[in-house]
Amino acid sequence: MHLQLVPAQEALVAQGRAFGEALPHDTDPGLADATLEAARREGIAFLTVPTERGGAGLTVFDACLFLEGLAGTRPSAASTLAAHALLAASPLAQHADGAAALGALAMGRAGAFALTEAGGGRRLTDLQTVARREGDGYRLTGEKIYVTNGGAWALVLVAAQVEGEEGPVLFVVDGDAPGVEWRPRRATVGLLGTRVGDLVLTGVASLTRLGAGGEGGSLIEAALLVDRTAIAAQAVGVAAAAFRDTLRNVSTRETFGAPLERNGTVQAQVADMAAELDGGRLLWWQAAAALDKGAPARDLTAMAKLHAARAARKVTDGCLQLLGGAGCFDDPTAAQRAGDARLASIRGGPDELMRALAAREFLYRLKVMGVIT
Amino acid sequence: MIDFTLTEEQRMIRDMVREFAQSRLKPDARRLDETGEFPLAALREMAELGLMGINVSGDHGGTEAGVVAYSLAMVEIAAACASTAVTTGVTNMVAEIIQKYGNEEQRKTHISAICSGDAVCGAFALSETGAGSDAGSLRCKAVRDGDHYILNGEKMWISHGQYAGVTILMARTGGPGPKGISAFILTPDIPGFSVGKKEDKMGLRGSNTVSLVLEDARVPAANLLSEEGMGFRIAMTALDGGRIGIGSQSLGIARAALEDAGLYAAERVQFGRPIAKLEQVRDMLGDMRTSWEVARLLTLRAAWLKEQGLPFSREASLAKLYSSETANRICQDAIQIHGGYGYVKEYDVERYYRDVRVTTIYEGTSQVQRIVAARESFKDALREEER
Question: What's the whole-model pTM score?
Fold first, then answer.
């Protein structure tokens, strides 16, 4: 057992923070490109991909540490990098057929992952995007929404249903291929510098199919579990930065002639925020450690994202309250962080789904083992 | 590297205590609650299993298994019988505090008595009618008289004070405020030291809670713990560790409630299906499970930090605050999931609800934990700026 970061891991968080500080502002339209460019330059664009496949060879845990730090300074850059590395590069690297696409990502294309479809949540076995076999390849038709890094510059992993097969399959699609139409989305709440688009596919030829029937589901599931953990880490990063800045601000202020930091009402808010935030961090640590060991992590990742996202919302909102007027004018950072944190409860599967997953796994374990730990 | 896995020894202790608690303590829990009987025989067996000095050196009969093992054991005991858990928790705390601040003679006498079970249990006497959270204002007085101190006053809310063979008691030897307080070791044979009123409590009815009365009690000067004026610091050190104990107790009660709620929801059929499949019930279970996990990790972290000899005051306060508040909500929701059955004594959840209520109050209220945790959080934020 060891429940404190070692210095090398603390350095990774600081490295993520510094990496973000050197990037354009978080709402800059050039942020996404600058992020991936800088990440390639520093050799970290693929985070968890093994070094022999051109990656940084980080564990999920260490990649999330870096993302936590980065989210503290450039939340939009963190989500850009996470989608590129964890949702696109990592599945590609796990499959021999992904080598060419991985090479293209290394050369400058952005990685994207297209799973969500319009019309509400659906099971992986019920995707409406279909792939028809044609000659040696496949042609894809369907619509995907909210694709991070989506655009003509991207190589996209598209989850589709192959006619006559069970379960989803991942296909590599060139974002610039004939039959591809992108409809850019404009973010309103948070992660304003992350590029997101909807993807309309009309008989688009796939470059590559990743794996035989049935493999797609496990590749998608594995990527989602890592992504949820990374979202939890990013949420903690955003909230921790907001919390630290707010405490520094509060410690300089007085109300009615007494230091604000010794006001019991303020202390109560601060302590509750600290408990939520520390809990979120411990939960993502636990989920990432389980993923790195290859242990079952469906419930741990769901609980981590559920709690970390809610904690980040509570903390960033609480920071706005403690900052008072100062948080609402001139410097948009505090308000923006609240918006950035807000999305953690939605992306990667909303809180409602995480809660249902946590309940389902809990009931299953209870039935099988009689106790929960 | 971050690692959440238990050591082989920690797992063995947890499993051993789970087995003992489920087979020996749980069957009696309802009866203890109904009759207010104090579980003397079970406590004796627990001493034999080494559960009264889990984090105490083997020199005096302790198990020397560490703070994490202590926390795991507390969770298991509390999941079976919350009353027995508080007795175990305070007793372990008393043994630890004598180990940390006592001299060799005091350790030899009192820790051995606690670990062997001869002392039955150890009590901790700090609160008074007028001094609760503001412990530094306590009024119980100790005046030096040759080889003795003469103690006068009354202590309130003393867990198992009636049965404890060893009691650590705080009294004022100096001026007002925290610096005038000293800690004494009291044994039941001291003249002028007696048990006062027994409280009729909402929960934890199988743990005995009394006031202790000091009427010209003659305490040998050799029973002074550490030095004069050290009492407040000793008390705060004890409570820091005690917070891990109560965080763990909260976790145990909440786990029992969560498990009962899950099993009930899986079997109870309404609208043609188990209520666990109804969205609102499922959501409650998901939230209960998740918040329990948060509480578990916060408590485990505090225990691990203390075990490593690292600062843990902030973390122990956060653990106690979050675990006790969360455990209260979990026990409340467990009743909700049981519906009417949760409101009657046929099921255990109403007892969990009564038992867990005090966890946000004793060993430092949630309000006190928030002050401690906030103070430390401000220090951390400013320290990071200096780096």
Answer: 0.97
